[in-house]
Amino acid sequence: MPFRGKLQLEYVNGDCWKVMNPDKTFLYITEKKDIICPEDGFITDLASNISLLYGIFPPQGSHDRQYGPAAVMHDWLYCHPVISGRKICRKEADELFREMLYDPIYTVSPTTISLLMTAIQLFGGVVWNRHRDDRIRG
Q1: Is 53's pLDDT higher than 70?
Q2: Which of 3, 8, 42, 57 lies at a CB distance of 3.0 to 4.6 Å from 38, suitable for a disulfide?
Q3: How many Å is the Cα radius of gyration of the chain?
Q4: Distance in angstroms (rounded) separating the CA atoms of residues 23 and 128
């Protein structure tokens, strides 16, 4: 089980949620044994997607599509693309998202994973570039 701890969120507004992780107990250990741990107070929109798809793919997932924790980690990597002191590229962040979706503790079907990954491939670049620009501006 690479995911550790329980994801705790506090609603902020609109589609924004704040990660409640003061003790850094919610984390993910990658297959390479790197640790990804979003900071307490990190703001996420979970699995943002086109609002027309919310009925099929709500941002937080659902009882049979539990991709919310992976979405938080993916958002964290897009905002903070560093693992174990090493910068990562968008492709690696996306590959780690796929790895997280296959975590057996959650029930994400291969079809859902495929659709989520297609959406990221099509639209993730816009978000990645926006966060990159934010990091450049400081």
Answers
A1: no
A2: 42
A3: 14
A4: 28
Q: Which residues contact 10 (CB under 8 A, 6 or more apart)?
A: 17, 18, 20
Q: 69 in helix, strand or coil?
A: helix
75 within 8 A of 46, measured Cβ to Cβ: yes
What is the distance between the alpha carbons of residues 85 and 100, in angstroms, rounded to a whole number? 20
pLDDT value at 66 more than 80: no
Q: How many residues does the chain have?
A: 138
Which position has the token pair 């599509």? 65
SS3 9: strand
| Residue ranges per structural domain of the chain | 3-137
Q: Angle 54-60-64 (CA atoms, 0-180°, nearest 5)?
A: 90
Which of residues 63 and 10 earns the better pLDDT score?
10
Closest of 30, 55, 58 to residue 45, by C-alpha: 58
pLDDT band at 52 (very low <50, low <70, confident <90, very high): very low
